[in-house]
Design brief:
Order of helices and strands of chain A: HHHHHHHEHHEHHEHEHEHEHHEHEH
Largest sheet of chain A: 4 strands, parallel
Radius of gyration of chain A: 21 Å
Number of helices of chain A: 18
Strand order of the largest sheet of chain B: 5-6-10-8-9
Structural class of chain A: alpha/beta
Structural class of chain B: alpha+beta
Distance between the termini of chain B: 32 Å
Number of strands of chain A: 8
Strand content of chain B: 5-15%
Largest interface: A-B, 50 and 59 residues
CATH class of the largest domain in chain B: Alpha Beta
Radius of gyration of chain B: 23 Å
Distance between the termini of chain A: 50 Å
Helix content of chain A: 40-55%
Oligomer: heterodimer
Number of domains of chain A: 2
């Protein structure tokens, strides 16, 4: 059940300053790339902004408006990228905007205002344990040629959780394969779950089916415990966010450390276990995936007060503790790379467009959002966008091909492999 | 809920496209939540009948003509912050100008830009800086529309000393009048470039906005020329962080200081002298005691209750922050010498901020981008603009003294906690010392059951500007304030009412924050 009523004070604290529409003011570098919220930038009415969605939800709670199909669409037309929350919390202490967005979706589902495209995702998750409508038996195909232990047949130190898209998107299999090989070659005792791996459940939570996540979380936690692994590595930023934020926020704890593949690789590099050697002569820029960056910030648990204005700053989910430096450290360690930054980076990065169920339900909006980012990347003069998320990579590749953009897309591990 | 007629709605759809008109209640409520300067006991402001999003001047003209045809009132807004940007009664049309967000021209040589309504000050500044220029930012912060404060409201920021205020920086206006006619004021009115607000071409700035603007009562401003000013820092500085974590290298041609005065009078003295010497780029009051409320709301109440800490904070009550900025290191060194001499002469102390931690924060966030001012209008907020702005400093001191008394009354009643500040929101503002972080009053924070007391405080402090002859109390001018101020000021409101009648024959511009037409006042 949605817990939206508990956030009424957050909603009523909105001063309608519209900072949620802009990159934090300290970081506006141009007129062209000054915006942070794809939703309001595409649909324009204030109700599409972070603050506007809070006002809309409050309007419904107060009985001024009704939840209708049209209203639900406004709520769903949002990638849940969290950019609005970063800009809001730059100046505010008492509003958890992203939680309002999540809970308003849950309210939609509670009241049966659902999207058919999202129902397909949920059906697929229930039936086949993945978000993509693929068969469960095929989940391990990506690792067919990998010589790597399966946790169902033995214990390992590190469990590699590929995630749905890396498991099923054939164009992206190489990313998962390369990460595993890279860690294996570094001497890590790593294993996979193969066809028995299941979705983390995060996507269900995001599109409003909060209860569904628990089933997947229980499955995941059980599998991890059985494996004896002390560490989970995932290359998927959505899974990472689910493990680091959604699970602990909802009292689901695997009792095991979770790292993104780029975090782990950066650690191994510091320890001298990974060392790029060959020159990679390429000018690249890095796109921060929302769910690895600002949304990947670990859930700051432990505060139970009522007045968020008095909440200690260490409990404020500002997004600045997301995973920003490890991918950059890896890229910068590769000889020959000319690394350039886009204008909107780190916690104030522009979204790729694919998150929050938008890729499935509103492809035109997703496409527009991605193209905005591609234009920003092209302005740097980079030959390639490097990223660390299968959803970002998928949509960038699709849009680059569809619109004949002169730029390539790589995962961080692609660059590493070019250098070995 | 009042709706537009089907015919009118269809005409609006034809004018701008179906996807840019809405009468969905939830969408409309996005324009009915305006806590700032909502001077009523209602949480929500009146819900518009529809909202429309034009993209061009021609579309705005069509919309206004449709309103005239159907005799429906409209209210335009740009970034849309504060109650005066929303309809004052149900049944009106909200014109949201957010699709008009282009910087059309940035003339480096003649130091001006032509901008549309939805260009925020930070955008304009970022582009201007690339050409060695910058813009004035009002106290509400860089998230506000550069056009709105110049055409339709007031505002005076930290650089007021060197840049003047928005209403004075206007260089030509494209104006869709309430009748739907388009008029270009200033040099663009004679098909020239946008270099002058007073001509060649019609120079009607006084009629168009007067001192405080008409808050959208006299039509829609779709384009302005706005004056830009020299900026000597790096064109694209490398800035890390978003607020307190900001780090940036401060160029040697910029230098910031705290100026600490022993009392209000000395603070006024140094402010006069710094102004006369023309050495400062930015100068605003920035008391030490504002910090806890602004950046440490969690600890603020405890801090203000501690007697030793209160004493320390009050020692730095009359403190300002000043930015010296010039084309050369040598000139900044000269400016610093002048500042130090002035401080010596006035019994004040100068603290070199370049020797402190967080120097980049002070320079970039405050001196350049005016961001701490954006921490206003929230519970636990603050407000900073230049000391003295539209009134002389001696009046500012008097305002602060009076405001302290009024505020104390409400502190004693328990409406606010005692944060040591000497002024507050209400009638007394912008012209005062500009440090009054009782934002709980201006904001719609009514969850603690003290809203009515705060409203009472706002009303009483607004009245104090009249009773104590303090000048116009801008911050809390309620709708209908002309009834109070008009007769006191040579019946200026009758002229405004004649202008309203002449320009808006069908009375379609929402006049709540302006005046009614003359035939209502002098039937």
């Amino acid at each position: 059940m949605s817990n939206i009523s508990a956030l009424k004070k957050d909603m009523e604290s909105c001063s309608r300053c519209s900072h949620c529409k802009w990159v934090p003011m300290a970081q506006i570098k141009s007129s062209r790339f000054a915006k942070i919220c794809p939703s309001v930038d595409y649909y324009h009415f204030h109700a599409y902004s972070g603050g506007g969605k809070m006002i809309a939800t409050n309007s419904i709670l107060e009985g001024r408006s009704e939840l209708t199909d049209n209203v639900a669409e406004i709520i769903y037309k949002c990638q849940l990228c969290g950019g609005c929350q970063v800009s809001c919390l730059a100046y505010r202490d008492d509003i958890d905007l992203a939680d309002v967005l999540l809970e308003s979706r849950s309210k939609c589902v509670d009241e049966a205002y659902v999207l058919p495209e999202h129902l397909d995702v949920i059906e697929s998750m229930k039936r086949e344990d993945n978000t993509l409508g693929m068969l469960k038996k095929d989940r391990g195909n990506w690792a067919e040629d990998l010589d790597v232990p399966n946790i169902n047949t033995g214990k390992v130190d590190v469990l590699f959780h590929a995630g749905c898209r890396y498991s099923y998107d054939e164009d992206l299999h190489r990313v998962a394969v390369n990460w595993v090989n890279l860690f294996k070659n570094a001497g890590i005792d790593i294993g996979i779950a193969g066809k028995d791996e299941a979705c983390c459940g995060g996507r269900a939570f995001e599109i409003g089916y909060q209860g569904e996540m628990k089933n997947f979380a229980d499955d995941m936690i059980g599998r991890v415990k059985a494996s004896g692994a002390k560490l989970i590595i995932t290359p998927c930023s959505d899974c990472y966010y689910t493990f680091k934020y959604l699970y602990p926020k909802n009292g689901l704890d695997a009792g095991i450390e979770v790292l993104h593949a780029t975090e782990y690789a950066a650690l191994l590099m510091k320890e001298g276990k990974l060392k790029p050697r060959k020159n990679v002569d390429m000018k690249v820029t890095y796109h921060d995936p929302c769910h690895l960056g600002r949304r990947g910030e670990i859930y700051r648990s432990g505060w139970t007060g009522d007045d968020k204005l008095l909440r200690p700053v260490r409990f404020k989910q500002s997004g600045m503790l997301g995973i920003f430096d490890p991918p950059r450290d890896i890229i910068n360690s590769i000889p020959g790379i000319d690394f350039v930054e886009m204008e909107r980076i780190r916690e104030y990065s522009w979204c790729c467009g694919a998150g929050g169920g938008v890729y499935e339900a509103y492809p035109e909006f997703a496409s527009w959002t991605a193209n905005e980012r591609i234009e920003e990347a092209k302005k740097t003069g980079a030959e390639a966008i490097v990223t660390a998320c299968p959803w970002c990579e998928r949509i960038f590749n699709d849009e680059i091909e569809a619109n004949a953009h002169d730029i390539k897309v790589y995962d961080v591990v692609d660059l590493l492999f070019m250098s070995f | 809920m009042k709706l537009l007629s089907k015919d009118m709605y269809k005409e609006l759809e034809d004018a701008v496209g179906k996807e840019f008109v809405s009468q969905e209640p939830v969408v409309l409520d996005g324009y009915a939540w305006q806590p700032i300067f909502n001077l009523t006991n209602q949480k929500w402001t009146p819900r518009p009948a529809a909202v429309v999003l034009p993209e061009t001047t021609e579309e705005v003209q069509k919309i206004v003509k449709i309103c005239n045809k159907h005799k429906v009132k409209f209210k335009p807004h740009s970034t849309g912050w504060a109650a005066w940007g929303s309809p004052s009664e149900e049944g009106e049309l909200q014109i949201d100008l957010r699709r008009m967000g282009k910087i059309i021209e940035l003339d480096e040589k003649n130091k001006y830009a032509i901008v549309e309504p939805y260009v925020c000050c930070a955008q304009l500044m970022a582009e201007a800086m690339k050409k060695g220029l910058t813009c004035h930012v009002i106290g509400a912060g860089p998230n506000t529309s550069a056009l709105a404060s110049a055409t339709s409201a007031w505002g005076y920021g930290g650089t007021g000393l060197s840049t003047g205020y928005s209403g004075r920086n206007l260089l030509g206006v494209e104006w869709v009048q309430p009748s739907g006619d388009i008029l270009r004021l200033g040099s663009p009115g004679s098909d020239s470039s946008w270099f002058s607000g007073e001509g060649p071409g019609p120079g009607l700035r006084g009629l168009m906005r007067g001192f405080a603007g008409t808050q959208g009562s006299l039509g829609v401003f779709t384009k302005i020329g706005i004056k830009l000013f020299p900026y000597y820092g790096p064109k694209e500085p490398k800035v890390d962080g978003v607020l307190l974590d900001v780090q940036v290298d401060v160029p040697e041609t910029e230098k910031m200081f705290f100026v600490v005065a022993p009392n209000f009078q000395k603070y006024a003295d140094i402010t006069y002298k710094v102004g006369d010497a023309e050495i400062a780029n930015w100068f605003t009051r920035s008391t030490l005691a504002a910090g806890p409320e602004l950046f440490m709301p969690r600890a603020a109440k405890k801090i203000y209750k501690s007697k030793p800490i209160r004493s320390l904070l009050q020692t730095f009550q009359h403190q300002g922050v000043i930015l010296l900025s010039s084309v050369s290191k040598r000139e900044v060194a000269y400016q610093e010498k002048v500042l130090r001499q002035i401080a010596k002469d006035t019994g004040c102390v100068v603290v070199d901020l370049s020797q402190t931690a967080g120097y980049g924060f002070w320079w970039w966030l405050m001196g350049v981008r005016s961001i701490p001012t954006a921490l206003t209008f929230r519970a636990g907020g603050d407000f900073l603009t230049s000391y003295g702005s539209p009134v002389e400093y001696d009046n500012a001191i008097k305002q602060a003294e009076v405001a302290t008394q009024y505020k104390q009354k409400y502190i004693d009643k328990g409406s606010f906690f005692d944060d040591t500040s000497d002024i507050g929101w209400g009638g007394i503002y912008e012209g005062t010392a500009n440090w009054g972080h009782v934002e709980m009053a201006a904001m719609f924070v009514r969850s603690d059951g003290k809203a009515s007391e705060r409203m009472e405080y706002l009303e009483e402090s607004a009245e104090s500007t009249v009773k104590q002859t303090l000048g116009l109390g801008l911050s809390n001018l309620p709708p209908g304030s002309w009834k109070i101020y008009g007769p006191m000021l040579n019946n200026y409101h009758l002229w405004q009412a004649r202008i309203k009648k002449a320009l808006d024959p069908n009375r379609v511009g929402d006049e709540e924050w302006y005046v009614p037409p003359i035939d209502e006042l002098e039937p």
